[in-house]
Write a structure and sequence with these properties.
Largest sheet: 8 strands, mixed
Oligomer: single chain
Number of helices: 33
Radius of gyration: 35 Å
Distance between the termini: 80 Å
Length: about 850
């Protein structure tokens, strides 16, 4: 059996830390300074290089098991001792400089040393993990003899590649990924420019257009002479043509290659421009956050040797900034008449007409075909109780004289503009299913902020709001005369036509306290708050809440490296920073909102401080299960790539059968492979265990088409764990979309309208498999509920209470002794209830986290 080659070439680690490999006297990883650290630098480098030589000799000559033992028993203790020496020596060098102005320099020196040693330790840990994985797989190999030797040659590279993919996908921070890409692009650009320069220096590339044309003309002349040449001369001419044509081909080929290289260089240069724009955009985001009252902050996390970059924003500061821009509190009222109806009213009389219709208890009617509400598939009109005819006859006469169609049916007078009625008649002729709904003609009231139009267009505060995404955060602007109002989109959507409105303004009281909760907002994989948290931040601020943002270790401008333990300690550091800086904030007024990967660290924090509230946005129950699932596709892709790359090798060694056997082995062992790698590499974030300790309000938000987080695994297991302690108030929230979609952009929703048509639609969706995932979790109860729903025959008297009673009976019948009522209720009603913003709005209200930004 052949010795397993080392997965990582330790010599590259030596080069990473030293300028010339073993024996070098200086290191680019340790910075010199006025503290005499250059002497310390040389001493440390010498010790590190001795340690590296020891590691290197072990990896070159020792077997796998011996190497693991050596790393564990000898190298790592030496590393720990060396790390302590770094601390003590650097502190002794600067102990007389503990003045505030010099503390940052001292910390920088400590951070540099820890960064160097941390990276070294990471590489040693990777060697250990990969050796362990290789040993496991070799021990369970299905091959013997020569095939076993080939397997041992293949498996280290296979494991190394798989681990690199996992680490890159889940744990390489956005900033680290950014730096890596820039370095790769720089190296590629340098290579391409060298190739281009070398090519441009060749005679072929230097040839002028005149020289090329002369060659081409020469070929034409020679070809013309062939027709009259003797056989002997013809052969000479053809040979001469080939010679000249070769020169032409050299020139055109050189030019084509230069053009191709130029395009490649331009593509990379454009990438640099894009990356620069992203970096500049992140800087601008921080400036904009400061403009609306944000306070840049640094959070020291001693446990991870990191300084976290963050930002704290408060609703009170934002309101004060509004006042500086001459903003005022605005109470507004509009009506809800669709603009198309207003367009069809007599211009001079429409206000009076609307007033009279309102007084006569008129309502807005809508006919629609299909599910979407668009101009093409909706028609609007008015309905008026027939017993009000005498009081409204003048309005009816005016409208019919202006092209409206009127008829009376079942005690109601209907009146539609001709073009709207034409649509309805067309749908009826085509036998299309028309849905009819009524909406009370009413006044829409809302509260927002108003600004002088000139100020709104020029103010730094309002410009910053626009750039940070106030529109996407759920707030819209309307220009009303010389004022611009900023109002909630949910109210703005109800406004029909803003020709008629009332506005009452009052001064902003800067002494008013919003008294809302505080959100610790974290991002998902590779995210930074400057790029992934602005819209959510504004949404929470405009609801009277405060927001603490920060980047995990190694992300953005935060120092350190992202690991499972470090991310957990980062969350604790952010919490303690918040509590220390703002001691008046109580735990039950804190919401820890986590997206995807950050769900594990966030839940860990909530388990340590059970009274805080938790919102898991598309997150997992067991992180290692999620990592293992993700790896399955990556594993299959790698095997395909590897197989194609080594096709020639396998064929030359007559090993095609081995390749086929290898694929069969990998396909049969894929679950074991992915779970082993996940166990070795991924943090043991078992959210479903930590979440049992949480006592605050908990929200579990997931998307309908999430390829990563599974409803019947992640959401259900977290929910089931929460029901064990019975102390947390749980909300399960589903929204349309795929993994990573923002709840802010999950539009639609509204309350359930359980008439016969709507119930038929729910039943049809059930029959088509829409509730399959729910059915897989609750098969008997779901079937029971739908059988009961099918019995409902009354068209207009079915209400949510009726459906709730069915669910209560199902809960009693199938879940007696447990508390799964809400989960089952969501299974049936969630698609007919709220989505996105409405879900979060209800959750924040229930948790008493919303404040009052108006005063």
């Amino acid at each position: 059996m052949m010795n397993t080659p080392p997965v990582h070439d330790i010599s590259f680690i030596v080069k990473e830390f030293t300028t010339q490999g073993p024996g070098a006297t200086s290191s680019p990883k340790l910075k010199t300074s006025q503290f005499g650290l250059d002497k310390l630098n040389a001493a440390l480098v010498g010790k590190i290089e001795t340690l590296m030589k020891d590691i290197r000799s072990t990896t070159e000559f020792a077997g796998g098991e011996l190497q693991i033992r050596h790393l564990k028993d000898i190298v790592q203790p030496e590393l720990r001792a060396l790390e302590k020496e770094v601390d003590s020596q650097i502190k002794s060098q600067v102990k007389y400089l503990f003045l505030p102005a010099n503390q940052k320099m001292e910390q920088d020196a400590l951070n540099n040393a820890h960064e160097m040693l941390g990276k070294l330790e990471t590489e040693l840990e990777m060697v250990r993990i990969e050796k362990q994985a290789v040993s496991e797989f070799i021990g369970h190999s299905p091959f013997t003899g020569k095939m076993q030797e080939i397997f041992e040659h293949f498996i280290p590279r296979f494991i190394s590649k798989l681990i690199d993919q996992v680490l890159g996908h889940f744990f390489q921070s956005w900033s680290a990924n950014f730096v890596t890409k820039r370095k790769d692009y720089e190296a590629k650009l340098e290579s391409l420019e060298k190739k281009k320069s070398a090519l441009e220096a060749t005679p072929e590339a230097k040839a002028t257009d005149k020289q090329l044309k002369d060659y081409q003309d020469q070929v034409k002349i020679l070809e013309g002479n062939i027709s009259t040449a003797t056989p002997a001369d013809k052969a000479k001419l053809e040979k001469e043509i080939k010679t000249v044509q070769k020169e032409i081909d050299k020139i055109t080929s050189a030019r084509a290659k230069i053009e191709e290289l130029t395009k490649e260089i331009k593509t990379i240069q454009d990438k640099f421009v894009n990356m620069d724009n992203i970096e500049q955009g992140s800087k601008q985001t921080r400036i904009d956050m400061n403009t609306i009252g944000g306070i840049s902050t640094k959070i020291v996390d001693k446990a991870s040797h990191s300084t976290l970059d963050g930002m704290y924003l408060s609703a009170d500061e934002l309101r004060a900034k509004f006042k500086e821009a001459d903003g005022k509190i605005a109470n507004l009222s509009f009506n809800n008449v669709p603009i198309r109806l207003y367009d069809n009213l007599p211009p001079e009389e429409n206000k009076q007409i609307i007033s009279k219709l309102t007084a006569a208890d008129a309502f807005i009617t809508t006919d629609r075909v299909g599910k979407k509400l668009t101009n093409a598939n909706t028609a609007h009109g008015f309905g008026i109780p027939a017993d009000k005819r005498s009081s409204i006859q003048g309005v009816i006469d005016t409208l019919t004289a202006n092209g409206w169609y009127t008829w009376e049916e079942r005690g109601t007078i209907y009146i539609y503009p001709d073009e709207e009625m034409d649509k309805v008649e067309k749908w009826e002729k085509q036998n299309m299913k028309i849905r009819f709904s009524e909406e009370t003609l009413t006044e829409v009231k809302t509260t927002g902020f108003s600004f002088p139009k000139s100020n709104f267009d020029s103010s730094a505060v309002t410009k910053a709001l626009e750039k940070l995404g106030i529109s996407e955060a759920g707030w819209k602007t309307r220009t009303l005369g010389d004022r611009v109002v900023l109002i909630p989109e949910k109210d703005e959507q109800k406004i029909g036509y803003d020709l008629f409105y009332n506005i009452e303004e009052k001064e902003i009281d800067v002494n008013h306290k919003s008294n809302g909760g505080t959100v610790i907002l974290t991002t998902g994989t590779k995210g930074v708050f400057e790029r992934a948290g602005t819209e959510e931040t504004l949404s929470f601020l405009m609801q009277g809440m405060n927001v603490m943002l920060f980047n995990f270790s190694g992300y953005g401008q935060s120092t350190g490296k992202p690991t499972g333990d470090h991310l957990k300690s980062n969350m604790e550091a952010a919490y303690h920073h918040l509590k220390t800086t703002y001691p008046e904030i109580e735990d039950n007024k804190i919401l820890c909102k986590a997206l995807c990967m950050s769900g594990g660290p966030a839940t860990h924090l909530a388990s340590l401080h059970p009274k805080i509230n938790l919102l898991l946005d598309q997150s997992y129950a067991d992180f290692r299960d999620t990592v293992a699932d993700t790896m399955k596709d990556q594993l299959d892709g790698y095997l395909n790539t590897y197989g194609k790359k080594f096709d020639d090798y396998f064929k030359s060694k007559n090993l095609t059968a081995f390749r086929n056997d290898l694929r069969k082995w990998s396909e049969g062992s894929i679950t074991a492979i992915t779970h082993l790698i996940a166990k070795l590499v991924a943090p043991a974030w078992k959210t479903y265990k930590d979440i049992e300790k949480v006592e605050g309000n908990v929200g579990l938000l997931f998307t309908t088409d999430d390829f990563l987080m599974k409803m019947d695994r992640d959401i259900f297991n977290n929910y089931k764990a929460l029901t064990k302690n019975g102390k947390a108030d749980v909300s399960i929230m589903e929204m349309p979309g795929v993994h990573g979609d923002s709840w802010l952009k999950a539009r639609g929703g509204g309350t359930l309208n359980p008439n016969r048509d709507e119930i038929d639609e729910v039943i049809k969706e059930y029959q088509e498999g829409h509730f399959k995932e729910w059915h897989d979790v609750f098969p008997e109860s779901i079937e029971y509920c739908f059988k009961e729903i099918e019995k409902l025959t009354v068209r207009d008297d079915v209400d949510p209470q009726t459906l709730n009673k069915i669910i209560d009976k199902a809960n009693e019948k199938f879940f007696k002794g447990t508390d799964l009522t809400n989960f089952l209720r969501e299974a049936l009603l969630i698609n007919r209830s709220y989505v996105g913003r409405q879900h979060i709005d209800l959750f924040l209200n229930k948790a008493h986290l919303k404040g009052n930004i108006y005063a």
